[in-house]
Amino acid sequence: MEKILVEVYVPSLLKSFDIFIPSVSQMGTVLELIKKAINEITGGLFIPMDNTVICDFETGKILDINKSVSGLEICNGSRLMLI
Q1: What is the pTM of this model?
Q2: What's the confidence (pLDDT) of residue 59?
Q3: How many other CB atoms sit within 10 Å of the CB of residue 5?
Q4: Gap between the Cα atoms of 52 and 47, Å rounded
Q5: DSSP conformation letters of 45-71
Q6: Within 10 A of 2 (CB to CB), how many other CB atoms are there?
Q7: Cα 44 off chain centre by
């Protein structure tokens, strides 16, 4: 499975995290993986909610969780934001 490296900014923590995500998975699945990873990395400082969303960092546009990562044109170096 091919993975890509993205930067995920979490405004509530004022921190960014570099995370590898699978390029062929649905964004909804990837969002759950990212939420879990950041919760673990921060030792529970980030508490994911049901309404947590993932956005494009540059535009602020909420990403469609029903599309694949590659379908959303997310690639190595993409910057995302978790809110």
Answers
A1: 0.92
A2: 95
A3: 12
A4: 10
A5: SS---TT--EEETTT-PBP-TTSBTGG
A6: 8
A7: 17
Assess whether pLDDT exceeds 90 at residue 1. Answer: no
What is residue 47's predicted lDDT score, i.e. its pLDDT? 93
Query: What pLDDT does residue 21 have?
Result: 96
Can you tell me the distance from the alpha carbon of 24 to that of 70, in angstroms, rounded to the nearest whole number?
Answer: 6
Give the domain CATH number at 22: 3.10.20.90
E strand or H helix at 17: strand 15-22
- The domain of 77 spans 3-82
| CB within 8 Å of 81: residues ≥ 6 apart | 8, 9, 10, 11, 54, 55, 56, 57, 60
Number of structural domains, the chain?
A: 1
Write the pLDDT tens digit of every residue in 15-52. Answer: 999 999 999 999 999 999 999 999 999 999 999 998 99
